[in-house]
Amino acid sequence: MQEMDQKIKDSEELEGYKQLVETTPLCIKVFDAAGKLIFINKGGRKEHSIKDTDDISKWDWVGTVKKEYQQAAMEAFKKGLQGKTSHITFEHTPEGSDHQWCEGLISPIKDANGKVKSVLFYSLDASAKKTAEAELAQKAKDLQNRNEELENMNKLMVDRELKMVDLKGKIKELEEKRNASNN
Question: Global pTM?
Fold first, then answer.
């Protein structure tokens, strides 16, 4: 009876974990040691427009990543297969995801002997963060440009004032010469 109670408890616990994985907004993917996708949660299927009836093993996850980020994504994935965890940020193709930018971890899943048996790859939408970073960079650039404009304006004004001082000195000098010649 105790063994049956434990199996029921384990089953309920496993169902709770499944519910947690399926209801999270994160994209959670698991790949086998050969790099073939064996699981993608509901959030990931929604993000990548994968139907429940689609053969996920044929889904080209690298193809959802813009070309300039694909090599870094593959290197991070290879590290996972080698037993190392990697953090990665990349931009998706518009057709590949409803998130423009994703940020995630690629981490090995090891068996009891420490051998990598699969790879966990979870990611979250980083589009708002990347947009904010771009806006902040643009504001910093605009501020730098404004500072340069103010410095140029200040230089022009100082140069003008120096010329005025010089002219006033020359006018005073001419007036003194005129007054001296009139006397």
Answer: 0.68
